[in-house]
Specification:
By secondary structure, this protein is mainly alpha-helical. 71% of the residues lie in helices and 6% in strands. It is built from five helices and two strands; from the N terminus they run ββααααα. A two-stranded antiparallel sheet has the order 1-2. Helix 1 packs parallel to helix 3, helix 2 runs antiparallel to helix 3 and helix 3 runs antiparallel to helix 4. The N and C termini lie far apart (125 Å).
């Protein structure tokens, strides 16, 4: 919109009212930044909806769209990680069969995330590793218990066999 001496942009606010903005670089950058944030937010919302639905490919595509606008967006890398691991909800990452700390998406989350998200994601990996260790220990304990039970049965069988021999010898002597 040209006013003669200064250019102005006409934008609408949430109520639909028109606002005139001077065409000053700083103002235009701020408006562009606001619009980009809104785009990113909407794209992320859609990506996480696709994850909930189990549509891994579309979730990944929408996360890529976010990364086209903001290559350091940790939430987009989180969405990509969830699509890669086929996880519908973030909290379900802790239920993965194996740790995912070797994933490129995981590494990028750690690189770009705030402390809160970093702590959550590393906590999931720690939880998985601890669960695997607990399962290993339980399996080892079960193996040891089975071995002890087997050895106890062998010993019992030897004792019974010895008793039978004594009984058999007694019967044969009569």
């Amino acid at each position: 919109f040209n006013t003669g001496s200064n250019d102005v942009y006409v934008v609408k606010n949430e109520e639909g009212k028109q606002i005139l903005l001077p065409a000053i670089k700083e103002v235009i950058k701020e408006v562009g930044s606001f619009n980009q944030s809104a785009d990113i937010s909407s794209l992320l919302e859609r990506a996480f909806m696709f994850l909930e639905d189990g549509n891994w490919t579309e979730a990944d595509v929408y996360c890529e769209k976010v990364l086209d606008l903001d290559p350091e967006n940790a939430k987009a890398y989180l969405g990509k990680l969830m699509a890669e691991l086929k996880v519908r909800k973030e909290d379900d990452l802790k239920n993965c069969a194996t740790p995912f700390d070797n994933s490129n998406n995981y590494q990028k989350i750690l690189r770009f995330a705030d402390d809160s998200l970093k702590n959550k994601i590393t906590g999931y990996v720690s939880f998985i590793k601890q669960r695997i260790e607990n399962e290993r220990i339980a399996a080892e304990n079960a193996r040891i218990a089975a071995e002890k039970a087997k050895e106890a049965r062998r010993k019992e069988c030897k004792e019974l066999l010895a008793q039978l021999k004594v009984i058999n010898n007694g019967i044969n002597q009569k």
